[in-house]
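Could someone model magnesium ion with this protein?
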Amino acid sequence: MRIDEVHITPVAFRDPPLLNAVGVHEPFALRSVVEVVAEDGTYGLGESYGDARHLARLRVAAEALRGVDVWHVHELARRVRGGLDDGVGGHGMGGMVTGSSGADRVLSPFEVACLDIQGKLVGRPVSDLLGGAVRDRVEYSAYLFYKWAGHPGGEPDGWGEALGPDELVAQARRMVGEFGFRAIKLKGGVMPPEEEVAAVRALAGEFPGVPLRLDPNAAWGVGTAVRVAGELAGVLEYLEDPTSGVAGMARVAREAPMPLATNMCVVAFDQLRPAVEVDAVQVILSDHHFWGGLGRSRVLAGVCEAFGLSLSMHSNSHLGVSLAAMTHLASATPNLSYACDTHWPWKAVEDDVVVPGVLRFEGGAVPVPTGPGLGVELDRDALARLHERYVACGLRERDDTGYYRRVCDAGFDPVPPRW
Ligand SMILES: O=C([O-])[C@@H](O)[C@@H](O)[C@H](O)[C@@H](O)C(=O)[O-]
Ligand SMILES: [Mg+2]
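Reply:
Sure, complex below.
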């Protein structure tokens, strides 16, 4: 069954002013929706970043993929590698994660789309193609952010301002109340570390027994990271990317009382071995968008199992195609032992490209879709609407730092360590 057509549609959806170590989210998040059409008309969906340079790479790959058998993922990968430019940028992560493999980032949405087609052809869910679901619902974590009340010059967004512990606790209460999450992550690296420690303690007081995580995206130096890790002993289930680089993480890991997790210093296969050799991280946050799709993420899970690393899952701002793919992958990964990250609560319900209904949160978990393939359908009107928004919004690269400088502090310097 060969690939006949590939369509790549950049889209934009509204995003609140969420603060992080490198700046603040712009009013719109960018994504690309990939539709692969097989020769019998069966279509498969993938989702990826929407940055212009990434889009250009996806378009080059799309040309090269016509005629490939949808079952032949190695051939997909070979053709993607063959046409790849070796320029930098277009990572879609605001400069926070830059070491991932360009070939794997480009391959990912095409591989997911081909798995969607494969599942539709044989009438089985993608989780079956990945070895079978070992859980029928996938737990996700609440994802708290420091944030402004609204974008400068715009209306408040409904979530309100969150710049201190009380407001973060209120944000958590609402998010847990609406989605039922049973784990909580705070995006840190925004306030001085002692304020973030106070926020985590406030969350621990309000949600006793609920697993907590803090992720400053490597904004701290080694000394600060060791100190904060010590202060939060017994409070965090893991500390995510407290400092930058494998060497720094290894130094922190030697003294930290909790496991260290990463989606920054180990984001590609060639980075695993050096990290394992110095025991720099104990939890890998997988992300099929940069590890090369669902099949290669299963390979990553095997590597983690072999080397005694735990596995959790990272998220950026995303739509329903990605949530479906993440859910199938997590359902078919036995050694994924933590609730996965998701930015889902920050997206307006109506801002999506999949037909509503299949994807829903129940008690903090998403039931694994059981229909053929990913189990979600493309809403073509919604796709057209979000594409129009992409055209109109004018954004072409995620640029949290540039936005923060424009609206808040022209001298803002995100280069770590900030503390
Ligand atoms: O969207 C954000 O601000 C996040 O900080 C995201 O870009 C990170 O990639 C991510 O959530 C993380 O865990 O590092
Ligand atoms: Mg992270």
